[in-house]
Specification:
The complex is a heterodimer. By secondary structure, chain A is of the alpha/beta class. Helix content of chain A is 35%, strand content 28%. Chain A contains 11 helices and 14 strands. Chain A has a 6-stranded mixed sheet, with helices on both faces. In chain A, strands 1, 2, 3 and 5 form a 4-stranded antiparallel sheet that branches. Chain A is elongated, with a radius of gyration of 24 Å. In chain B, helix 2 packs parallel to helix 6. Chain B is built from 12 helices and no strands. Classes of the chains: A alpha/beta, B mainly alpha.
């Protein structure tokens, strides 16, 4: 497997008491959008800073594009936006990108292209200090794209965007990944990660507590049954083969069972004279999983 | 490297603070070197009217650089790097690819280029002022030799460069601008100023004083024709000697530039950007 980002027991402590990142093993495959999910303070940003060489790990190791974090050879192929995008407030958006292009050895004709990509060309001549939060966010993404990078590391890219802007940004990030680019996306917004990511890693108190595709994390499909009388229905379904745990929920009950069991359950209930008003597939949302993992 | 330097020059050139510092420094240097002494009574001024005429331009103006010019250069140096912390742009700077030390070197090189107008502008304005005074007084206009002017420009650039390098170092150490400027001015005014003033009475301070930026800067100014009386009556930037040899002064100032840059570079390279 070709891992673009690979960490082994990556750890960052601040003093003796604070462990920001604790023995993190993170592997991001080439060409995937990896959602790095965790509550505030879980260690997401510290991890991203370590991957970019901004912060040194206390122990453990990491490689990005086969190089140690912060190595110039790797940084030239990485576009990043860590926490809030930062710019020279008195320079225009275009001049801010010009400065970055000259520092990074990027041809300046890329500037117009990335400004158009994030739909900021009309305001590119205005000073960055006059930009709204959403525009700054888009300028941050433009800056990350300037090098036409193989890897994009984006920390909370939809921060400060309105719902329409968030949807636009999600589509945009997905489109970036379609060109074979690898995206490591940190967020505490489940919906965002769910819609954009091929795989998700959940971090809690500096440790990776779960990793997989969204479907894998959500687990087995269940069924919701609404029937009358309810106690008899629960009793009958509980005795059927292929049915797991039953949980009563607000005048109905959830059954741990594969969706293929639905016809058999329905038939058994109807034949027993129980009126079935709902029998629907039921899956845990990523939010449920997230809350359970990070509680 | 050229493109990196041009990036840093763009950052400095488009910043209002750079132009405000340049304008204030030029205005104040001419005001205190020519306007005030001439307006009060040129004959009462140190060195008399001759000091205000074009022939004394090099030495007369150079005397204003080791302290007053130094403070402006210090602020420019602080702004050049300390502001990167305030705006949180250091993380953007260090993820571009060329490596921290190369980026810092480009910043210092741009700072060195940005100091050129800080040297030229007071000399141009001073030349105009001295020429006007000569015309008013109906005095002959004799300009200093080109070689003396070149040496004066080089020496004043070196004096400003050492203060700018100190500013850059303080900006890095304090991760900002306000404290760096405060500490820098405190050093220039209190540490160097007071200790230099006590050199006469406390002999043990003399070796220490000989490595101060102030004493080495004024030693260069003295070698270029600045009058010792003018230097010793230079307000908060006054210096009563002893002066060191110009060669030694150049070496000490150059060593300070290298030292300040090396320490700042080392700290930048090693320290986390949080």
């Amino acid at each position: 497997m070709d891992f673009v980002i690979d960490t082994h027991a990556l750890t960052r402590r601040y003093g003796e008491a604070i462990v920001a990142v604790d023995s993190l093993d993170l592997r991001v495959r080439r060409g995937e959008v990896y959602g790095f999910l965790g509550p505030n303070g879980a260690g997401k940003t510290t991890t991203l800073r370590m991957l970019l060489g901004l912060v040194r790990p206390t122990s453990g190791s990491a490689t990005v594009l086969g190089e140690p974090p912060g190595a110039p050879a790797a940084l030239r192929r990485i576009g990043a936006m860590v926490e809030a995008p930062a710019f020279y407030p008195y320079l225009s958006g275009r001049d801010n990108l010009r400065v970055l292009a000259r520092r990074g050895g990027v041809r300046e004709d890329r500037i117009a292209r990335v400004l158009a990509q994030v739909d900021l060309d009309a305001r590119a001549g205005d000073r960055a200090t006059t930009y709204s939060m959403g525009m700054k966010q888009r300028l941050g993404v433009a800056a990350a794209l300037l090098k036409d990078p193989e890897v994009l590391i984006l920390d909370e890219p939809t921060n400060g965007l309105d719902p329409a802007g968030m949807a636009e940004m999600r589509d945009f990030i997905r489109s970036l990944a379609q060109g074979g680019r690898t995206v490591l996306l940190s967020s505490h917004l489940m919906g965002e990660v769910e819609q954009m990511s091929d795989r998700v890693g959940v971090i809690r108190e500096g440790s990776l507590v779960a990793e997989g595709t969204v479907d894998e994390l959500r687990g087995r499909t269940g069924l919701r049954v609404r029937a009358e009388p309810l106690p008899e229905a629960i009793d009958l379904v509980g005795r059927l083969p292929g049915v797991g745990a039953i949980t009563t929920v607000d005048g109905a009950f959830d059954v741990a069972a594969d969706a293929a069991e639905a016809p058999a359950i329905n038939r058994a209930l109807v034949e027993a004279g129980i009126a079935v008003s709902e029998l629907s597939p039921r899956r845990a949302s990523l939010e449920d999983v997230f809350l359970e993992l990070t509680r | 490297m050229t493109r990196m330097i041009s990036a840093e020059l763009l950052v400095l050139r488009k910043r209002a603070a750079t132009w405000i510092l340049l304008g204030l420094w030029t205005l104040l240097s001419v005001f205190f070197a020519y306007v005030i002494p001439y307006a009060l009574d040129p004959e009462d001024a140190v060195g008399g009217l001759n000091e205000l005429l074009p022939q004394s331009l090099a030495g007369h103006l150079t005397a204003g650089f080791p302290f007053f010019g130094g403070v402006f250069a210090l602020m420019l140096g602080v702004f050049a790097i300390g502001s990167e912390y305030g705006w949180d742009t250091l993380k953007t700077l260090f993820t571009q690819g060329p490596g921290r030390l190369r980026l810092f070197t480009a910043k210092l090189a741009a700072l060195g280029v940005a100091l050129v107008p800080f040297v030229l502008a007071p000399f141009v304005a001073g030349a105009v002022a001295s020429f006007v005074i000569a015309r008013i007084e109906d005095a002959p206009v004799h300009w200093p030799s080109a070689w003396l002017l070149v040496r004066a420009l080089g020496a004043t650039w070196l004096i400003l460069a050492v203060w700018a390098a100190l500013g850059a170092l303080l900006g890095v150490l304090t991760r900002g601008t306000s404290l760096a400027i405060g500490v820098g001015i405190l050093y220039a005014l209190v540490i160097e100023g007071l200790l230099s003033a006590f050199t006469d009475s406390v002999g043990a301070l003399e070796p220490l004083s000989s490595v101060f930026l102030r004493s080495n800067g004024y030693s260069l100014a003295r070698a270029l024709g600045a009058l010792p009386e003018a230097i010793s009556s230079n307000g908060p930037g006054s210096f009563g000697g002893p002066f060191v040899a110009p060669g030694q002064a150049v070496a000490v100032l150059a060593a300070f530039i290298a030292g300040f840059a090396a320490v700042a570079g080392l700290v930048l390279r090693r320290r986390d950007v949080t």
